[in-house]
Specification:
2 domains, alpha/beta, single chain, 22 helices, 5-stranded mixed beta sheet
């Protein structure tokens, strides 16, 4: 058998380099600001917060709290673990592909996975999805090893990877369900059903605990659109081939990078076509028995469960751990895939045509993924609605110590993400801080409720959504007039001074 370690490491390094390009450029967005809010507090305060909100992310927050203590809270530092996790996942896919088919097959599948826009989304996000993906791929690798050689150490590894995966995201327990289908379908794994069942508590117990705790915090996902016909587009287009969040009123949200509508459809046509053909071509091969359940079972369980229970539980990013399934099936179309000869199967020996076809597919996917890849690495690569850095940079450049700052709830989360930019300012709308309140957000008051805090200040900076002018009208009613105005994609930052001391407003 061909050696795997060096190619797997090389692909992992390439995945880190590709995914890590300009990860510091996008502004923190609302979920990343939530990560900062959670980890930038004392351990007792974090534990108290988890009793109220975000318990399902508790293990990730504990990991990141230790990471941030070493490397800080910058965009680069907090996104780096996701990038490294994608490197690990890519290397493991190489190893899986080599063991169930050939090295060329593993290399092609791994590179396809790295190129997917959804992979790049989770790689560059300071959330748990990339780490959960890597742990799920590790579990799949140990299942493949146990199929080759049913030794205890591989089942222990499988249990450990499952425990880690479910602690990071309890949705990954569906990987166990998908693997159970694989065990039932595969003759060689069927004989190992006892050790497979023995490892299941490592997956089921943490998942059940997190689900039970999360059930009392379902208000966090109340904003998700109920399952309707739009879910078809989310699965077909967004689950693998876009960095968008969801379909909203028939449109992709947030709005894609110019040209990305076309390339998303192009990726879907190319890769779904290859996936369907690959599933048929590999129907008698273990690759299909492994990848098809991983693709189908989690989607059916989450979407079907949402319909049955009447609550929405599906967002494309929640099921990012299914990402290897499409590449493993698609790669089987352009490469000869067979059981390794040392396992009694037909040796997989890709021809020159196979390799040229694989290179062609990879080049096509890379080209179609480019608009999403580059768009994710702009300042507003997550969402124009989360212009936290724009607000922070404006305040840092324009405001003077001692002046007042008035923030809405969402803008207050931006203050948590970029707290140094607001140092020295009097925050007049804050109530109970997030730490004291045991929440992600600070408690915030409307401007008309904090008149006594505002009036001692000659200068008040107001940050508000561009379409909501109520805060400006409140300041004007208190005798202030607008001075300099700076408009970002979502928020306006306006300098108000006491009437009688106003210069000409400065357009942004």
């Amino acid at each position: 058998m061909q050696r795997t370690t060096r190619p797997a490491v090389l692909v992992g390094v390439l995945a880190v380099a590709y995914s890590g390009f300009r990860i510091h450029t996008p502004s923190f967005w609302v979920d990343e600001a939530a990560t900062i809010s959670a980890i930038d507090r004392s351990l007792p305060d974090l534990v108290r917060m988890l009793g109220n909100i975000d318990a399902v992310h508790g293990f990730y927050y504990l990991l990141m709290r230790g990471w941030a203590a070493l490397f800080g809270l910058s965009e680069f530092a907090l996104r780096l673990p996701g990038v490294l996790a994608i490197g690990v996942a890519a290397g493991l896919v190489v190893a899986i592909g080599r063991r169930i088919g050939s090295l060329d097959y593993g290399l092609t599948a791994a590179l396809l996975m790295v190129l997917l826009p959804r992979t790049q989304y989770v790689a560059t996000d300071a959330r748990s999805y990339a780490l959960a993906l890597a742990a799920s791929v590790a579990a799949t690798y140990f299942l493949v090893r146990a199929r080759e050689l049913p030794r205890r150490r591989f089942w222990i590894g499988y249990a450990a990877a499952g425990l880690l995966a479910t602690l990071l995201s309890f949705y990954t327990v569906l990987v166990l369900v998908a693997h159970a289908v694989t065990v039932c379908l595969d003759r060689r794994l069927r004989g190992s059903w006892r050790p497979f069942l023995a490892t299941s508590p490592a997956w089921l117990i943490p998942a059940a605990c997190l689900a039970a705790i999360g059930a009392s915090q379902q208000f966090q996902i109340a904003w998700i659109r109920p399952i309707d016909s739009g879910v078809i587009a989310e699965v077909v287009l967004l689950q693998f081939f876009s960095d968008a969040y969801l379909m909203l009123d028939g449109d992709i949200a947030p709005l894609p990078t110019p040209g990305e509508n076309f390339t998303t459809v192009g990726l879907a046509v190319v890769l779904w076509g290859l996936t369907i053909v690959g599933s048929l071509r590999l129907r008698k091969h273990f690759a299909a028995r492994l990848a098809v359940p991983l693709l189908v079972v989690p989607l059916v369980c989450v979407i079907g469960g949402s319909l049955v229970l009447g609550s929405p539980y599906y967002l494309p990013r929640y099921l990012s751990f299914v990402l290897p399934s499409v590449p493993l099936l698609a790669a089987g179309v352009v490469l000869r895939v067979g059981e390794p000869a040392s396992r009694g199967g037909r040796p997989a020996t890709p021809t020159g045509w196979d390799r040229r076809a694989a290179v062609g597919v990879l080049a096509t996917v890379a080209l179609l993924a480019l608009p999403s890849y580059l768009g994710q690495r702009t300042e507003f690569g997550r969402s124009p609605g989360d212009d936290f850095r724009f607000v922070a940079d404006t305040i840092r450049a324009e405001a003077e110590p001692g002046e007042a700052i008035a923030l809405t709830v969402d803008a207050g989360l931006g203050r948590i993400a970029y707290q140094d930019s607001f140092a020295g300012l009097d925050d007049v709308t804050i109530g109970t801080s997030a730490e004291e309140w045991g929440r992600i957000y600070d408690q915030r008051f409307d401007l008309d409720a904090v008149e006594d805090r505002i009036l001692p200040h000659d200068v008040v900076w107001v940050v508000h959504p561009r379409e909501n002018l109520a805060p400006e009208r409140t300041l004007e009613s208190l005798g202030y007039r607008a001075g300099a105005r700076f408009d970002g994609p979502a928020n306006s930052v306006v300098r108000f001074v006491r009437d009688g001391d106003v210069g000409d407003p400065s357009p942004s």
